[in-house]
Structure formats: structure tokens, C-alpha cells
Design a protein that fits this description.
heterodimer; A: alpha/beta; five-stranded parallel beta sheet; two-stranded antiparallel sheet; 21 helices; B: 29 helices; 49% helix; elongated
Chain lengths: 434, 871
Amino acid sequence: VQDRCGCVLMMLCDGVCVQAQKLLRERLCHQKLPDQPVGLDSQYKHLLELLRRTAVHGESNSVLIVGPRGSGKTMLLGCVLRELMSLKEAQKNVLLVELNGLLQTDDKIALKEITRQLHLENVVGDKVFGSFAENLAFLLEALKKGDKSSSRPVLFVLDEFDLFAHHKNQTLLYNLLDVSQSAQTPVAVLGLTCRLDVLELLEKRVKSRFSHRQIHLFSSLSFAQYLDVVRAQLSLPPDFPDPKFSDEWNHSVTKLCEDKTVEEILRRNFNGSKDFRSLHSLLFLAVSRVSVSHSTLREADLIEAWRLISVDSKANVLHGLSILELCLIIAMKHLNDTYDGEPFNFQMVHNEFKKFIQRKSHSIHKFEKPVVMKAFEHLLQLELVRPVDSGVCKVQREYQLMRLMLEHGQVMEALQRYPQCPTDVKQWALSAFG
Amino acid sequence: MSRYITRLRMRRTYKWNGRPVGEDRKLKRQYYESMSISVEGKTEDATVSLGQYILIEGDDDDNPFVAQLLKLYTDDSGKKKTAVLQWFVRMCEVPQNKRKLLGRDPHPQEIFFYQDRSCDNEVDGETILGAVQIEYVPVQDPFPVGKSRDILFVKLLWDTKSFRALDPELMQPSQSPKSPPPSSRGPQTRALPTPDPSVMKRAMSGILTRGSMSTGKMSSSEAESLHSASKLSAAKALSAKRRSQAVSGPQVRKKLDLCSPSKNMSRDDVLGELLDERSEKTLTSKLNTSPTGRISISIRLTPLNLNKEECVSPLSSHSPDKPRMTAHDKDDAARARTPSRRKDSAALREPALAALAEEEHEDSPINTAATSRSKRKSAQLVSSRIKKQLNLLGNKIGLQSDGEDGDDDDCFIPSKIDLQSSSDEEEEAKIDSEDELIVKKHRGSGTSRSTEKTRVSARTPRKTPSKKTAPATPRTPRHATPSIPSRTAPARKPGNVLEEARARLHVSSVPESLPCREQEFQDIYNFVESKVIDGTGGCMYISGVPGTGKTATVHEVIRSLQQSAEQDEIPHFRFIEINGMKMTDPHQAYVQILQKLTDQKATPDHAAALLEKRFSAPAPKKETVVLLVDELDLLWTRKQNVMYNLFDWPTRRNARLVVLTIANTMDLPERIMINRVASRLGLTRMSFQPYTFKQLQQIITSRLNRVKAFEEDALQLVSRKVAALSGDARRCLDICRRATEICEHSGSQKNSSGLVGMSHVMEALDEMFSSSYISAIRCASVQEQLFLRAVIAEFRRLGLEEATFQQVFVQHQALCRVEGLQPANVSEGLTVCQRLGSCRLLLLEGSRLDLFLRIRLNVSQDDVLYALKAD
């Protein structure tokens, strides 16, 4: 009986753990909007007020939301729209058109998409009819028909706004902004971009029609606040079904955040970038390591996650090389040191390598030149070595000029970690000149 | 209305009919009564005579001008034929803004009697296209339904300002020598018109032609209609009594209305026509190896010719009705005889009715061509037999009618309108469909006897279904009018002073007046006004930086010009606006102009040709067109033909086109236009200077219009700041609007005067003008800041403004060590670098070069250092 009880308890525990993991994953994978954007209160208010005026008063507006990647532009807009739609006055009165500069790569596609999303009359099913010119005339006429007080406001969300500025003549932007500046259907043009110089991309007449409102999302978070965010992100909500488990979990999270090593990891991450997207990917890896056997988040999980995240990709590649290839890399490094980063060719590398074999090597045998050439070509394929100018003139392969795409430090680090690296090779790498 | 002869492709020759009826020695003019128009490729001529309604070639092929012919004369040389007209206008010719004066939707076939003394009523006689049928409908009566689409209705009079009820007497030509008394169309009793001798003559000739019909050269339809015309007077006597009975009671009249046959032919006529057609077709198909083309021509002509034939004699206007009466009587009899047949024939008729007349047109020739051969023998046989009969009858009637000219009965007239309205319009469509019907019958029965019978009975009940179906097939709208759905809850009105001010300051709100552009306004006004008054054309080029009120001023000018046009101080004009930015391709300009001018849709090339024609052809009724071309520079093409045309049209003698062009750059003509374009643009130029701070201040104050929301100093600060930067009024208004928002937010806390003060304006200015780079650097992460530092350090070391990533990375690692941070590895370093690049703090080039990525700063080094120092 006791056994069975234990089994049931295990299963229950198992279920709770999976549930907690699911909840945290959702949070960390941006599948759910947070309840409140962190550290963006004033921007949130500004944007909400602006959109509310468009929705309720029918006032046309245009605004740019500018912030670095991962700073929460889309999240902010999502939160604002969520609140806006919860307003009774705005709920059924607002039409939303969402465009993305990466999807709508020219105005023709963008116009079709707008027409489709607005359900205008030349849409049958999901297809939009008419030529580009007709569609433009059609849409403009539709927008012109409306007026401030009687037609529904349309919110145009242009994600990757800067890409729209590269469209021919900026026709779409001109027309949208022109509508926002004239007594037609009320529109709000919301541009999302990470480029600070986006206004310089706009043509002067387009620029003049833009209201020059910009909402900047620069995070001015201190590290203490950052830690709070981490804690909040990892904590389970009070309405979690199993309060005992959530208490335990939250306690462990608090303890984790006070841990010195964990704090160090988080600080490094914070120093690298302040955005939450990189934090989330770190925490996601950590949370994924939680299992039934250890149902709390431990510092080891975080350390492992950090190791995975911060690893240098090229150093990883170096670990998979053969000794010969590694030797060639070292020879190139020496050449780089000798000639101060000037490009080299295979022949030079081969000579350097031969010198090493003749003078210092004890463990490595002499290789035939074709074999060395093959190894060199492998490096070329891995793009650890690159030709200077990709074969403009017909030069023999041995004499084509190459560059090493590795930093000094990367080579040294790879050598340190290389399993069973012969000591003479290591010494050769460390020695100052060849 | 697309079945008028296509004018463009056919050459017409005009000839006077008969001798001149009068001569004006002083003016050296010779007056004629009628003119015949022969169209290339057609065997018979159309004749137009005085008092008749005619179509005049216009800009719009689908809607030619309509007029009544009053005089025809030639000058002494005898070459130039001139026509004096009374114009009618279509709804599409009425200025757009006046159309709503009608107060209802115009009937698609409705036209208006045009009363405008300023309008030239003399046209070149060779622009006449042909006759058209016009019917007067009293104001209170509804439009007759279910009639042919080629008949036009006139109900009202348009005197360029309003629609008025049309006096029916105006519909009668006054100068025509043979005009019937004005009462002839009215419901009251009137004197008898003499039958048109020309008609009679033609009737006779028609019979003669019929005699020689077996040669198959003459269109059967003409013969048939001529024949019916000849019959009319003969039939008069026979049916006079019965007619007077028929019209006595309203009920009877109604019945008449319903069952009166569509065609002015008796049963025999129908048969004759039918058989003539058949025989002719068989003949032509025999003669031609590929007969379809030929046959289709003869059939297509049928409705038109018939129409014209009837229009030839509108003066003896009631004459076509008479045979109708007889036909009706006979039909009645036919119906009585074949009551059962009528039903199935009606059923047979149904599908044909559902189809459009146009389609029937296309179908019928092919069908006939296909069937004619197989049925040839029996058809020929029967036709010859019946023709013999007809010839006899025709001759007799011809003889009778001679003695019967003046004899007519008065009581016939009251029913006239009913009859006309019920039957006239349908004729054409019916004739079309009859062809088809016959073919079907032929196929089905083979014997001509049964054809004849069903044919007669089929015609009688058709009236009933067609009346129902005609309105049931509405024309598909040319283009749907798109619109954004309207909101469920109404927009909220501004609640407080600040909201009110914000609404007024929005760029979109139209100000009561445009301050600070009085001089420019006056100049443009004078320019356009003089051109409109003179009826000439011209170009003007307006330049100025964005937001200086160019478009707004032009709109204001047009608005006030339209006002004075409404008060009749200047002639009416059309205003059309296109915008280079609002089209996808420069050539779309033609399409848009044409669409706004005539509501036609066309491809760019076709539109250009049509516009070219419109602006170069002389047209008497043309209004001046004022064309505003905004963002002119975008109409630039390599050959510059769009610009060339835009500037060339106004120079045409008959164009009456004023072109106002707007662009941003002052020297646009010199910079991008080739000489012949720039030369046509002319020297009328105007440039809008950026607003000065005083003007900006005045603009805001006038917009606010005594809504006290701003402190005086605050306004001055805004206007000075904007004037110093760009002089863009839009910017100025936007800043003010933002300032009211800031004031509203802070107002709750500080509770100062409630007005927008200096601090609010400063904040708004800061938000809009300050560069965001510095704050972006300040808010960057530690590694990012270090990387920027490393970039500057590397630049200093190299003495260049560009470095590779590898070089900067070395510096970066050194700096990390100095700062006591664990040095980042290459991957992290690259991530940091890319992030700065995506914000455009750094400019990165050749990102595939990896370590050798080239880095430049997008901010000045001083700014970076300043931002980092203050940190």
C-alpha cells in the first residue's frame, strides 16, 4: 500500500513539475504577453493614450516605436492593444492592419495585404483582385471616403518600418501618412523599428507628413532591477494549482538568485546585453534541465546553460579537427604573427609546417604534400581559412592568398581544450616565432 | 449605349438631300432640309433632317452629345456644312458638384434640355453621327421601363444652375419649316400633320426595292421598315374607327398597352420580313464562302436603321403608331386563334429574354449562318409565295395612301403616349431577338407554316414577361465604391480646452482661412480666373519645401473659384487633382485624369490617346478643366512624355486646360526636364518660401481661434524653433499638439494655469528634435559601451575612420581587462557589434567577412565620448 501511495505521489509530483515547466516555458518563449511591460511605464501610457484618442476621438496619428532588438517593441504594442481592445468604446470600432517589412517586401504585396485585412470589396476569399495601380486607387478611395466621426479608425502596424522606406518612391508610406494628415478615415500609423536613424531614410515630403512622434525603448535597468526581473520571471504565480510545490519552487528561485556564481553569470549576461530575449534563452535552457528527479532549479542548471550559451562557436569547430589540421592552423598563426596579418598561401603554410616537422616534432610523422593539401582544403571548406579575393585571377591553388579567420585567443583556447594534444605541438604553438 | 456606330473606324460621307430650301444672300448661306450620311461599309444612308434629334461626335465614344437639329446650311463655297443645334446634356456632362441638385438618381437614359446662352450652338455638320430617338416624359410621370436602351428620355431642363421642369413646347423645333403644331406631342387635341412626303416617297421606293429583293443586296430590315411606313396611311382608314373605340376607356387602353405589338408591322409584314431575311441570308451565304461576317453586318444594322428610319419622320410623329394599331388588331385575332401556342412560345421566349441583347446580337448571325443552308429550300419556297402576297398588298396600300394624306382622327391621340412608351423602346431588342427566335423555330419545326404561326403568337405575350425582366437585369456597376466600415459608436467630441485645441491643431482640420499666403493665393487665383474666363489654357509651376501650404493654397483657390462660379461670376470649370505619389507609375496619370474627367477606365496608352483627342478636338460645350498635378517630379520618365503631354495640352487651341503643378524643388524644370518640356511649362512660376516665425505664430493663433490653450511665450518658442529648422507648418502644429498632451498629463499633478507653458513646449521640442543617439548610448549595456570605446580607441590608433572587427576586438579585450571584466570571446564580441549595427550606432559593411567586417561610426566621436563620460 505504501508503495502504491508513493507511486501516486510520484505521479502527482511529476504532473506538477511538468505543469510548472510548461508555464515557465510559455513565459520564456514569448507565447504569452506579460501582464505588464517591465520598465516601460511612460512609453506604455503614451502609446495607449495615443491609440485611445484614435479609437475614441477619431484623431489620426502616426508614431514610431524605436528600440534595439529584443527591447520589447512588439510586446509593448501587444500589451497596449490588449488594453485598448478591452475598452468598450474601442472594442468594436477599431480595424487593425498588421504588416511586416520582411513579409511585405514591396508596396504591391503590402497593398494586397492591407486590402485583404480590411476585407474591402475586391477581396474574394483570401485573394485580392486588380492590378497594383487599381489596388492603390481602390484603397485610397476607400480611405478617402471615410471621415473623422463616422468611419472606423484603422490602425496600421508596420513592423520593420525601415524596410518600408526602401520601397520604390515610398508610395505606401506617403499615402498612409498623407491620410493621417488629412481629413479622411482616421488612421494611426505605428512603425516599429530598431534603427535610430529611421527618419533619415524618409523622403522629405514623407518625413514632413510624419508627426515626428517617436517612442524610444531604451532600457535603463540597473542590475538589481534585472535580478528582480529574473526572480519574477522564474517564480510560479500564486494561483498555481499546487501551492506546496509552488512555494518550494519559489523559495528555491529566491535562493538561487542570491547565489554568488549565479549572480556572476547573470551579471555577465547583463553586461552583454540588457534585453530580455537573451535572458530568456538562458533561463529557458536552465528550466529545461529541471526534471522529476530534481524538481527545483539548481545553480548547476544555470551554469550549464550559461556554458552552452557563451561557448565560442569557432573554438568548438577547432575541437573536431585532426592533429594535422591543427598543426596547419598553428603554422598559419605563426605566419600571421610574423607578417603582421598579411595574407599567406598554401606553400608558405606548408613550408612552416615542414620546418616544424624537421626541427621540433617528435610525435608527428612526415606527411605527403597532397595529404597536407587535402587537410588545407578541409579547413577552407570549414571557412576557417578564406581566400582573400575569391579567385578572380587564375592562380594555382598552392599560391592563392588566404587569410586565417581565427583570433589568436581562439587558437590558444582550442589547444588547451584539445583532447590528448601532443606536448610538442602545444609548445610549438606557444613559442614566439616558428 | 455601346451600339452606336463606332465612329473612329468608319469614314462617313455627308451629302445634302435635295435642293436648298432657302438662301441667305447676306451671309452667303444656303439652307437645307436634310442631309444624308453614308457610312463606309454600309449599303444604305442615314438621313437627318431638321427637327430631328441627332448625336454629335464628342469626347466620349459611348456617350456622344445629343442635340436637336434646327438648321442646316452651307457657306458659299459649299464645302463646309454647318448645323445649328439645340443641345441636350447627359448626366455625365453636368458638373460633378451639381449632380446632386437633381435630388434623385438619374435614369441611365435620361438627358436634359440644355439652356445656356453662352454655349455655342453651331457645329460642323460632319460631326453628326446619326439620329437618335428622344422621348419627352412629363415631370410627374415615372420613366417608362423595359424599353430599348437607345432611346433617351427628357424630363427636365438644365440651365447650368438648376434642374427645372421642361415645358413640352420647348421640345418642338421652332425654325423647322415643316414643324408640326406644338400640341402634336401634348395630350390635347391638335391639328393634323401632313405625312412626310419624303417618307411616302421612300415607302414607294421601298416597295420597288422589295420587288427586286431576290437579288438579295438590300438589307431586309430597311425594306421592311419602309414598307411599314408606307402602310401607315392606308391602315389609318381601316382602323380609325376601332381605334377611337379602343382609346375611349382606360381599361381598354391598358390592354392595348400590354398587347400592342412591339413592331409597327402586321402579321404579314412580320412574315415578309422574316422570309426576306431568310432568303437574303441564304443568298448571301450562297454567294460567300465565308458568310458570317457579311451576314452579321446586315443583322447588326437592323435595329439602327429601323431607329433612324423612324427618326427621319419625328415631325409626323404619330405616323409610326398607326400601323401598330392595325398590327395589334390583327395580333388580337391571331391570339384568339392560337391560344395554346402562345404559352409554349412564351416559355420558349424566356431564356432569350434573360440573356442580354448584346449577346443575342453576337449569337444570331452565327446561328442563322449555320441553319440557313439546311433550311434553304423550304424557306425560299415559302418566302417567294408570301412575297408575292405582300407585294400585292403593298401596292394596294401605296395607292390608297395617296388619297388619304390629310385624313386623320383626333381621338387617336390620347393613347399615343401610352403606345409609344410601351412599344418604341423595345423594338430594337425585339428585332434582335426575333432573329434568334426564328432560327430556333426553323430548327425545331422546319415547316414554314408553323413558324409563321408561333411567330405571331409569340410576339403578343412577350410584352408581359419582358416588362418584368427588364428591370430585373440591372447593369453591373462600373466599379464598386469601396469604403471603410462605419463605426458602431460615434466618435467622441473633444471635452476640454486642451482637447479642443488639439483637434483644431491637427493638420487635417481645415482652417477657415489660410493666413500668411495671401499674396500667393491672389496670384494663383488671378491666374486661374483669367484662364477660366478667357477659355484659354496655361501652365503654372509652384514650388516650395514640404509643409509650406502649396496644396492647401491651391485647394483654397479652387474652392473660392468654385464659389464664384456657382454665383455665376465666372464660367463653370472642372477641377481635377492627381498626385504623383498616389500612382504606381507615371503613365497612370493618364488613367487617373481620364477617369476623373469622364469616369472611363482605360489602359494608360488608350487613356493618353483619348485625352489627346479630347484636348485637341474642338468641342463647343467644353468646360475649362483645371488640373492640379501634385508631386510633379514623380511623373518623370526617361522620355518625359507624361510631363510633355501635360504641358503640351494647355497650349492647344481648343484644350481649355489649366495645369497647376506642384513640386518641392525650385529648379525642377532646369534640373530634370529636357528643353522642350521645360519650354512648354512656361515661365509662370511661383515659389512658396518657408514660413517665418511670425507667420507660424499667426497660423497657430488663427487655427486656435480664441481657444485659449497656449501661453504666448510658448507659442513664440515653438514657432521660432520650427522656423529656424525648416519652416514646416506641419511640424509646428505637431509640436503644439504634443505639447498639449504633455500639459494634460502633467496638469493633474502640478495644477498650474492649465495652459500649455514653456516647460511643456520645451519637453515636446526635446522629444521631437533631440537626437536619440546619446540616450541610446547611455542605455546600452556595458559590453556595448566598451565596444564603442574600443572603436574610438582603434580609430585613434589607426588615424582612420574605419577599422576591421578583428582590430577593434583586440582593443575591446584589452579594455575588458582594464575594467576588470572577463574578456568576451569572439562570438560574444560579434553579437555586441551586430547589435550596435542594427541600431545604426555603427555602420557595418561586409558582414560575411566575419573577422574582417569593416566598422565605422554613425555618430561623431565627440557624441560617443560625451555620452559615455556622463554615465
